[in-house]
Design goal:
heterodimer; A: alpha+beta; Arc Repressor Mutant, subunit A; 3 domains; nine-stranded mixed sheet; three-stranded antiparallel sheet; 17 strands; B: mainly alpha; Histone, subunit A; two-stranded antiparallel sheet; 3 strands; flat
Chain lengths: 493, 95
């Protein structure tokens, strides 16, 4: 009997992150948004590759690089070397990219990821500094075909982060990429926006027979502009390679692109001859020597990273794994949550968590802005939740008020007054509404008395409606139940 | 001879150089002579000596992250052979 061979995937990730410095890596040109700025406005003789110029390393870029390397538990090289990576391409004005090859900035790090299978440690091979290339636009117009070069991005500082091939599935690849992005955002490296290309993720995918030591031929996937595309392309590529091997065919070592519409990887022919980079030490830059004191200072100033903050949120605030994860994905959200609790420590952390991840996220999503604490100060949310806690407003009204607070910038107390949403807790008034509603709906009452108990929920809704949503729902429920039970007793008597 | 004409072709292609047959032969010989010389240097035992990445014994100076004016765009593009929409126009790259 022939048993079908089992295959396993071996995947490593190469990630390029633009460093959000003010000026470029080796010159003082401004770093502008290369997707929206006017072309070629931030270019000087250094980043245009004019003869006779000299590069000078940007200190802030080194600091950000070290910060990320430390966040990834890497060993920082006391001395690292810049190198020239030589190839001809129109987006590279010098004819070489200044990068690091032998002796990179940092090596041997790790990143813990979480998947449905639990936690897994992914080793980081190296982290090094380099510069970005210019941007090419391909034009096909009136039978003419040409490319346009914009050098705004040429020379923007770039950090390359290379993992060991420790990833075994598309799910793990996605988890690694998202976790790394969150670390980069916590470190204030950049916005993590794949669409804008400030973060570029390139998986190397190979498959091998299960248990086999020898690695298979790998392919590299480029031009992925979303996490979904990343995950789909890796899943597709694993399956494609397994099918080739099952048919007895070979996997070609090549660079692939991803067609998001067709959902397939496609051969890319660009730069095909460029793989012979003839690296050599950059003669224009002496070795980068890092002061121990400086590294320690950067280490001391490292933010609390998402995974640690998540664990702390669980034990300190008693939040669930899920809530803690949602709140710590973005540093600004986690800061906001803690700020609300600092202002109003009497509030339940779980309630604050729910309002942030439920209502606030929802409202900001509707507005299409993403989480924007500047549109609602933590103090303002704290105040609203305090009113809710005191019973000045009920849950439903508080939601309406929250939306209005974001719209108008007004405070909770003011809006409660102005919108007349003060919660009614007066039992006499509520009792009046209960009686009115029950007397106005004899058919429903009849059904209830015949045993259709769920009618009470409907009646509750009617009373709340009658109250303009302002009644204290707890009191409504108590009084309504009491009234209905009274009717039942009368019937039985 | 330590370098083949095929290797010379490869290097020429990477450097975007168009060589005629005469140059191909000439450079094969010249490059071979250079490589032979390095072959000789390879014989020196360097096991315990760290590689010399730089001959000037200095550290990399760092620059404060400050923005200074870039070139006026017309000066930058003034050097270009072909300009379209304020960008450098080059032969098609993809496809």
């Amino acid at each position: 009997m022939v048993t079908k061979k089992q295959y396993e995937a071996v995947i490593g990730l190469e990630v390029h992150a633009e460093l959000a410095t003010r000026s470029k890596m080796f010159c003082s040109c401004e770093v502008v948004d290369s997707t929206s700025a006017e072309p070629n406005i931030a270019v000087c003789p250094v980043c245009a590759g004019m003869p006779g110029v000299l590069p000078v390393v940007n200190q802030a870029a080194v600091e950000l690089g070290v910060r990320v390397a430390l966040a990834l538990d890497c060993e920082i090289a006391p001395v690292s070397i810049f190198a020239r990576k030589n190839y001809f391409y129109p987006d590279l004005p010098k004819g070489y990219q200044i990068s690091q090859y032998e002796q990179p900035l940092a090596q041997n790090g790790r990143l813990v990821i979480k998947t449905s299978q639990g936690e897994k440690v992914i080793r980081i091979r190296r982290v090094h500094l380099e510069e970005d290339t210019g941007k090419l636009t391909h034009i096909n117009q009136n039978g003419q075909s040409y490319s346009l070069v914009d050098l705004n991005r040429a020379g923007v500082p770039l950090l390359e982060i290379v993992s060991e091939p420790d990833l075994g599935s598309a799910e793990e690849v996605r988890a690694y990429a998202m976790t790394l992005r969150n670390v980069l955002r916590y470190c204030e490296v950049n916005s993590g926006d794949l669409q804008k290309g400030v973060l570029r993720i390139e998986p190397n995918v190979s498959v091998k027979e299960a248990g086999c030591k020898e690695l298979g031929t790998r392919t590299e996937i480029k031009n992925l502009n979303s996490f979904r595309a990343l995950e789909r392309s890796v899943a597709y590529e694993i399956e494609r390679q397994i099918q080739l091997l099952q048919k007895g065919e070979k996997v070609l070592q090549e660079t692939l692109g991803w067609d998001d519409i067709l959902g397939v990887t496609v051969t890319q022919r660009s730069k095909e001859e460029a793989h012979d980079y003839r690296y050599f030490p950059e003669p224009d830059l002496p070795p980068l020597v890092l002061d121990k004191e400086w590294i320690e200072e950067i280490r001391r100033n490292l933010p609390e990273l998402p995974i640690y903050r998540q664990r702390r949120f669980q034990w300190q605030y008693g939040l669930s794994d899920y809530d803690a994860e949602v709140l710590t994905e973005e540093r600004s959200v986690a800061d906001y949550f803690e700020e609300v609790l600092r202002i109003a420590p009497e509030l339940s952390p779980k309630v604050v968590a729910n309002w942030i991840s439920g209502e606030l996220f929802g409202l900001f999503n509707q507005a299409g802005t993403g989480f924007s604490p500047n549109r609602l100060a933590a103090a303002a949310l704290a105040e609203l939740l305090q009113e809710l806690e005191k019973g000045t407003v009920n849950q439903a009204s508080a939601k309406v008020i929250l939306s209005e607070m974001i719209q108008s910038g007004k405070r909770a107390a003011e809006l409660i007054q102005a919108m007349g949403l003060m919660q009614v807790s007066d039992a006499e008034i509520i009792q009046g509404w209960v009686i009115e509603v029950c007397e106005a709906n004899p058919l429903q009452i009849d059904a209830y008395l015949k045993g259709k108990e769920t009618i009470s929920q409907w009646l509750f809704g009617q009373v709340m409606r009658k109250a303009g949503g302002k009644a204290n729902p707890h009191i409504v429920r108590v009084l309504l139940e009491k009234y209905l039970h009274g009717l039942k007793d009368d019937q039985q008597a | 001879m330590s370098i083949t004409p095929q290797q010379v072709d490869h290097i020429a292609r990477l450097a975007r150089l168009d060589l005629n047959e005469e140059e191909r032969q000439l450079y094969s010989q010249q490059l071979s002579a250079i490589l032979d010389h390095f072959q000789q240097l390879q014989e020196v035992v360097t096991e315990d000596i760290p590689p010399t990445f730089q001959v000037i014994p200095s550290q990399c100076p760092l620059r404060v992250d400050e923005v200074r004016p870039s070139l006026p765009r017309e000066h930058l593009l003034g050097n270009a052979v072909d300009v379209v929409d304020n960008q450098f126009r080059v032969p098609p790259i993809l496809e």
